[in-house]
What we know:
alpha/beta, 13-stranded parallel sheet, eight-stranded mixed sheet, 10 helices, 29% helix
Amino acid sequence: MFKSLSTKEIYDNSSLAFTFEFFTPLNRRDVSSKLSKTLGKKIKWFNDIEATFEATYDTFRVSPRYSNGYKEMSLSTGFLPYQEAVHMLLKTMNLVEAIGYTTDRCSVTTKIRLNEDRLNLPTKINKLNKFKYLVGLNEAKLFELWPTPDNEESKLRRNHIHLIQPKNLYNMVITESFIERMNPAEFNFPESDSFATDFSELSSGNLIVKYISGKDYTKKKREAVSTINLVIEHLYETLSKNYEYSFDEKKKISRMVEDFQNSVDGTRSYFNFKRLFPDVVMYVDLKPIDYLIEANYTILREKIFKLIVGGGIKEAVLNYDTGRGRLQIKDAVVSKSILIEEVEFYQCKVEADSKNCLFEGCDIRNSKLTDCVIFSNNDIRNSRIINCEYLGEANELSRCYLENPETRMINADLVECLVNGGNFTQSSTVDPNTKVIGVKSIK
């Protein structure tokens, strides 16, 4: 199992905590009883999705999950030493397989912690060079172990290295040495539910990964252990040489710098942008006047960079509404799970984490919408919709999770959704397969 004594020592000085997502027809009391007998741990179960109890070594937690469907549950463990954790992983997979099932959108979230002192690591996890970690990670191997099915129901797990960018994008020369230093004060590291690597708990000494996932993940036990081992070894290697790059990593950085600098130069001015992206047409206040566009371009170019480079847009119509200070985009395909704020989308196909945006006549898939305006004629599927306003008609939501304050009015047709909070308008329709929690009658 171990390639060398040093590798065994790394594993022996690692600890893991898991959160398993799965579906079962059993109630939480019965599931907890079976888990306790199988795993030899106390299980506390909750009906409230927002229960604050944190799992410990001795006591695990079972609670509703809901974000992927009504019958979904989650089991959270405390941190366990590597060997015990792996056995716990395999036993849990066997039990979930016996009492339930997993879908394309289920996953196992794994938290990894190293005993940095015993491993004599020169760098602690809270100082991890996130860029070096991502550059050197063999993510092709991980996605080979956990391929994403080509269907709209699959939850995407992406590497977000292409979304990391300097905070002063157009006011510095991007060099290899500048990239290698990757000073957190000078770079933005975005966060998203769609990223397979989560750095949000580095300050607590934890790295979080979400590769183990998909329909019947419980049957892929060997792949699950291989994934954990690969990540542990790579984390150790990165911390051992936190700002030293291998020859292959330097080659990769060199290509990235060239591509990145070309993208920055290509969007630095409206003249360059128009020349390099002829199929993206720009207006200001619906007027195709060059001097108006040039006068406002510097206000827009960072959002345009994110949409074009991060979102992979090839064709689109852009308009800047100076009165409202909003960038509007029409007839675009926005992919790669970009993070975008304060943009209005019209007749677009969108896959993104969006905040304070507006959608009209869009097809939205595998996205997270937070504090957005859902206007009219939108088709939204397999997405999370958090605290959004519904200001128009003819919106269809399929297999979505909605979370709203009590007073929020939901105006949409719902199919196989889960709704947590809010009220429905009289024009809304709710199919029998939609589960409603804490929602008052249709008004």
